[in-house]
Structure formats: C-alpha cells, structure tokens
Amino acid sequence: MKRTAIALVMTLLSALPVSAGNLVEISDAWARATILTSRPGVAYLTITSAATDRLLEITTAVADHVMIHDVVTVDDVRRMRHVMALDVPANRPVTLAPGAMHLMLTGLHEKLREGEKFPMTLRFENAGEISIDVAILGIAAAGPQGETE
C-alpha cells in the first residue's frame, strides 16, 4: 500500500511542468491545419512572464524542427528571418501571430488535422521546460477566437 501511494505521488509530480515558480504563462497556442507533410506547418502563441526570460528551444513530436521566425521588411520586401532565441520581457506579453513572428514546424511527420491537438515543449533560460498542447485550427484560421483570413 505504501509503495503504491509513493508511486502515485511520484507520477503526479512528474506530470507537472517544470518552471521557475510558474513565472511563465503560455496562452492561445494554436496552429493551422496542413494539407501536405512536405510543406512546413506554422504555430502561434502568447508568452507572458513575471520576470525577464529567454525562449531557447521548442520541440514537438509532430515535426523534426521548430524554428522561431520573425518577419522583416527590407526594400519593401517582407522576408522571414530565423531567430535563435526570443527575449521575453517581464510583464509584457510576447504574441506570435499571423503576418508577424511565428513558429515554423519543418519535417512534419503527419498532416496537422483541424480539431486535433499536439504537444509542444518550450525551454526557457530561467523557467526551464514548459509543455503545452497546441490546438489545430482551420487552414485559413487567423486566431483562436475563430476569425479567418
């Protein structure tokens, strides 16, 4: 009985996300559905932190790589630029959104199907790893509130 109780407590503790006192909150995590696995997927979210932090790495089981991309305009041409790490200021939400900074998912293992979810882990310099579920919306979705482009 005692071993069962200890095993149950250990299982429950291991399910909790690793963070620095829950200082970082991830909200509105969503991705667009995809038609092919040969094309990259894209995901968006909002990060709010009580203390200055830095997002260092993102991983997911549905893709080989997740990259942070910013959108910059040079000579009236908009281009994506890979960002190695994302600074997260204290008490100022950082929102990744269509037409702006986003997460590019390359090497998809399967199509992202509308109505499903997939796990993603974000690794922060101070807060550590935080695991979330990303909701998959429609191909033309513009946000989790149901708007379309």
Automatic annotation (TrEMBL):
Coiled coil regions in record: none
Pfam families: PCuAC
Keywords: Signal
Signal peptide range in chain numbering: 1-20
Superkingdom of the organism of origin: Bacteria
InterPro entries reported in the protein's UniProt record: LpqE-like, Lxx211020-like, PCuAC_sf
UniProt name for this protein: Copper chaperone PCu(A)C
Top-level taxonomy: Bacteria, Pseudomonadati, Pseudomonadota, Alphaproteobacteria, Rhodospirillales
